[in-house]
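Trying the structure run again after the queue cleared.
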Amino acid sequence: MTRATAPFPITLDAALRDADLDDDKARILALTHLGSAYLHALGSADPVWLAHTRDPRGDAVKAALLRALQRDPVAANRGLAVVGLGQLGAPELLSGLPDDWFVPGERRPEIAYCRECAAIAWTLLALAAKPVPGDMSQSTCDTARANLRRGLASEFPELRFQCAVGLAEVDGRAAEAALAEALTREQEPGVRGALVTALGDIDPPSPATCDALAPLCDDPHAPTAFAAALALTVARDPRGGPTLLRGLARAEDRGRALEALAALGPRAPEAALPAVRRLAYSLFTPGLTRVRAAYALTRLAPHEGQVLLARLANSWRPAVREAVNDARDALAQLAARESV
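Done. Tokens:
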């Protein structure tokens, strides 16, 4: 009999016990998992509004996190505590963040980590409060949202990064204008990448957003170029096509590039067809990548691609046969979307 794997390296009861120990390593392990272990006990993987009211241990969990936020000597533990409070949907975190985390010019790495945790906590708190009716939940969600929006203009790049990710998760399309505006002034490559990825998750990005993304594809060496091309593809905007073709040459980007070229279909660059053919028929192309190439080929040369998919459907490898089924489902979904 195989023993079930525990979802966390520490139980909820052990995390509660260790959250106040003098041992720094024990405390950081406990505080890392305390919120998640408590949510797991509630049967949830998502943040829960006022979660401390849902279980007899909830008050103790919340109190342990508040103690850590207020007085743990290790800065990282204070950051972990605020994330845990966000998971618990505890509005107290909004007024409990230390002022020194946001002092202008504060660049210590441990405080930068805490700022990241603050943005993650605002995101979790907003997600917990958003679906719950009532003045308190609405006010809390609005305040957390406002913090995320202000964070997009912060002097601290790590805060801007996490606020871009968080605001997109909380507000979706309603965040598009703020994210696109932030992109026009952002100079930090990592933050630009987060903004581009967040905008790419909006389906589809608006024409104005596409106009802001298109110039980012022009520099073949820019780390955001490929992400911008993928985001444009969501809107079926072909301006990212040449960047997608360059992505075929990189093993880490090849699969996504093929899927994006398939999404563009007839709008893909003329050079896409011979490039995809080379991958589809090469003996050196791994089986699953060949399926992706055949999928893209079906969008560029439908009969030829369907014949190749049929051949791959007879592969001796179950994973390849399953991938062919997934590809055919995806093709049907694309066709349905384009027929609307």
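The two ends are 52 Å apart (CA to CA). Worth checking whether this holds up in the mutant runs.
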